[in-house]
Structure formats: C-alpha cells, structure tokens
Amino acid sequence: AWIDGEVLKVNGDTITVKCSNEKTVTAKASHVHAKDPEESPCGVDDMTKLAYLHEPGVLQNLKSRYDMNEIYTYTGSILIAVNPFRRLPHLYDIQMMEQYKGADFGELSPHPFAVADVAYRLMLNEGISQSILVSGESGAGKTESTKMIMRYLAYMGGKAATEGRTVEKQVLQSNPVLEAFGNAKTVRNNNSSRFGKFVEIQFDQKGRISGAAVRTYLLERSRVCQISESERNYHCFYMICAGSPEEREKYKLGDPSTFHYLNQSNCYKIDGLDESKEYLETRKAMDIIGISSEEQEAIFRIVAAILHLGNVEFAEGDDVDSSKPKNEKSMFHLRTAAELFMCDEKALEDSLCKRIIVTRDENIVKTLDAEAAKGSRDALAKTVYSRLFDWLVTKINNSIGQDPTSKCLIGVLDIYGFESFKTNSFEQFCINLTNEKLQQHFNQHVFKMEQEEYTKEEIDWSYIEFVDNQDILDLIDKHCQMVTTSILPPIHNRE
Ligand SMILES: Nc1ncnc2c1ncn2[C@@H]1O[C@H](COP(=O)(O)OP(=O)(O)OP(=O)(O)O)[C@@H](O)[C@H]1O
C-alpha cells in the first residue's frame, strides 16, 4: 500500500523519504507522489477537486470519506461507490429520494439517486434515451447500486396509488426472481450475480414507466454441475430443499448434502439467510410478476429434476464401451428425474448412455462408456438449467410487457467484472473480454472523444496518458471471428 511520508532529501531522480511508520526510504522520484499539505482530512466529494490526481491521492480520498461513512464520491460525472458491507437504510429511503428529485448534479452529496436523476431529467427534457453503466469487480456492489437506481427510477416514474401489479413493482420484483436462479455464493460474495444484465425501463411522454425489458448475458452454466470449495450452486436449489414437508415429499428431496450437484463444496448455509423464507419470497415475487402457480410448479419441478439427474451414476454396461445406471439408487434418481421432467424414463436413460450420430444416409446409435455418460448427464443438466433461466427471463419480459409506443428508455447495465481465478475457463475469458470492451467504451468517451474535442477547438491542454486496450481487443475480436466462422458449430449445438 501507499504510505505517507516527509521528503528529507532530493538527489537527482532519487528521493529520500521519512515514512509515517518511522522507516526512512530512498526511492525513485517516479515512485513518489506529491501530497497536498492543506488537504482536508474529510477528503473531497469530487476527485476533480483534488490538488494532485494520482493513485495514492484517489485512494487516500476514498479512504478519508469511507472513514466518515461517506461511501460515494464523484469523479466528474462518474460515481464511485465503496462497498460499506453493512446496511445503510437511511441512505436510500423515500426522504432521500425526495431530496434528489430534480436537484442539480453535484449540489447534494454523491449518490446513485443523483446519477439516476440526471439520466431521468435528460431523457425527459431532451427526449434522448440514456444508459447507466455499472462496473467493478465481483463483490464491489454493482447489483446493489443497480437496485438503488431502479428503485429511484420506479419512484420517479411510478403511477401514484395504482392498484395491483404496476409495471414498476413488476420491474423491482424481477430482481429477487432473477437472483434466486442466477445468483450464488462465491468466495468473494454471498450473493454473486453469475450473469450479466441490461435492464431497459421504458417511459411514456409524461415520464411515467410504461414498460420494461430485462436482457441477460453469459449465465455461468458450469456452476450447475461443478462448484468449488466455499462456494454454492444457484440459490434456487437450496430453496427448494427448504420447502414445506409436502413439497419435499412431492419432489422427493432431502438435505442438500445428499445431492452430488450440491455436496461438492461442503458449503450449504449462508450466514443470516433463511432459505425457507427466501423460497416463499421468491414465490411471492413470481406472483407479482405474473408467473402463474402452474408455471411456478413446473419451474421448481425442473429444479428438483436437475438435482436428481446429478445423482445418477453410471457403471460399465454389458457391451464394450457402453454404460448403464450404476445401481438401484441411480435408477431411483433417474426415474424421479424422468417423472419430474415428465418424460419417458427409458428415453432419458438412452439420451445419457447413447449418442445418435446423424449421417446423410442413416442415424447411427453409438453407446457411451460410463465417463462419457456422466458428461452427457452434466451437459443435459446445464442445458436444461440455462434454458429454464432464459425461459424465466422471457416470461418476466412478457409479463411486464414492453411499450411499443415508448420513445425513450433508460438502460442500466450490471455486468460482472474482471475475474481471475487459479484456474480460468472460457467463461472467464468471455467475461474479461466483455469488460475490456466496456473499458474501451469508457476510454472512447472519457479520453479520446474529449481530447479530440479539445484539439478541434484549439484549447490548450496537456494530453492525458491512458492505457488503450484497442490492440488487445482487435487481436481477440478479429481472431475470435475467424475461429467462430471456421470451426465452431452454431451456438445452440456447442455443448
Ligand atoms: N450500498 C450498499 N449498502 C449495503 N451493502 C452493500 C452495498 N453495496 C454492496 N453491499 C453488500 O455487498 C454485497 C455484494 O454486493 P453486490 O452483490 O452488489 O456486488 P456485485 O458487484 O454485484 O458482485 P458480483 O459481480 O459478484 O455480482 C451485497 O450482498 C451487500 O451485502
């Protein structure tokens, strides 16, 4: 970390500093940064007001503010949020929304409501659609910030005292449903979104919410079958295991530890989270969105079926390179999965233990060995789950409904940030590439376009050095396009 100090001696490009931890250090001048001796201990609410804008200055400012419970800071029109890791309800209540309503940007303390308010006013006054990008690494607080922004927009654009399901209520209630199926506990975040989303809120000419749509990206499918230490599978699996005794009986469910897809990590509970309560809340949210009880029943049947599917193990079959369910226990889970999927048990078994190769003249059935059958089982579980997720999103969109006459919308992009694990897969590659693209968008708008404008208007300014990642993007983007067109089958066949 950076440390405070007092300069004792300057010798060419080396500087000797007496640090606040009493150590004396000699360092290269480029590694030492100036500090404003008159800087306020409370920091500044906009980084552009800092006398010296460099990394230690920015970090020091954020820390000073955080120590005073100020978790938000501006850098011009960008809002930086530092995760408080504790509830701060007073920051987000109705009185707070009232205060930010129509207030000039920068007049009040930095806040997501202020960003949402600017977007709302610009949309109303200039008739131009707006987008708010929320980015940061896992656990930084993106989803929480997105929810605040959506709450504010729902407050501003809500219809007063309307009975029943209003669009804004439906939009807000889509969060718990998406979170139940798309969020999971990770090492860094107990409620980590394992998908990206772009929420579009449409408004009529009077600025009232008239429709909405949620677009989701890159659901982490591998988690359905494989979880690392200290992590969990998607919340909905644990919720259904905590359902009422009748439901557990109906779905033939037991403790999460009895299911292979849940017991790989020895982590079942999340502190302070009551799974059975969450389950009821999710059901309630589904009611509000307009998912019928039959549909809800079908959704949870599939969730339970996936758990049973994961418990089907395979043994060598009678023929060479063939397989069959390992024992009576596996047969039970296969039967239950088939019942819940409402499909033929034999057909399900065949789909796991055999593969059909389609040639021009005939269909050849090839048996699979036990290892390959396990692969088919996992592929089926992942595919069914991701289709269930996509179906839910479509259902949410159909229920909320879009307004074909709407001219303006505000989009909020909440997409997961850079990830780097011990072992990284294709999923991390896609996530990081997306983030690089967002960074490029940011570079374009904040540096490139701004500086071009300065040059055009012949304003005297000093060029800001920034790392431009365009070369990397071109390398991957163009290379990927070549690979995609030359080798890979269409997306839906690419298990
Ligand atoms: N403004 C806030 N007030 C209170 N708690 C917060 C706030 N922001 C974040 N948190 C806490 O931090 C946790 C992680 O935040 P969040 O889920 O928003 O992170 P994220 O950036 O969306 O992470 P991921 O990319 O993993 O989904 C939340 O569950 C919440 O406990």
Automatic annotation (TrEMBL):
Record GO cellular component, one term: cytoplasm
Q: Which GO terms describe its molecular function?
A: actin filament binding; ATP binding; calmodulin binding; microfilament motor activity
User: What GO biological process, any one, is recorded here?
Assistant: actin filament organization
State whether keyword Oxidoreductase applies. Answer: no
Alphabetized, the UniProt keywords read: Actin-binding, ATP-binding, Calmodulin-binding, Motor protein, Myosin, Nucleotide-binding
By its UniProt entry, which SUPFAM superfamilies does this protein fall under? Answer: P-loop containing nucleoside triphosphate hydrolases
Family according to the record: Belongs to the TRAFAC class myosin-kinesin ATPase superfamily. Myosin family.
Would you tell me the protein name for this molecule?
A: Myosin motor domain-containing protein
The species this protein belongs to is Aegilops tauschii subsp. strangulata
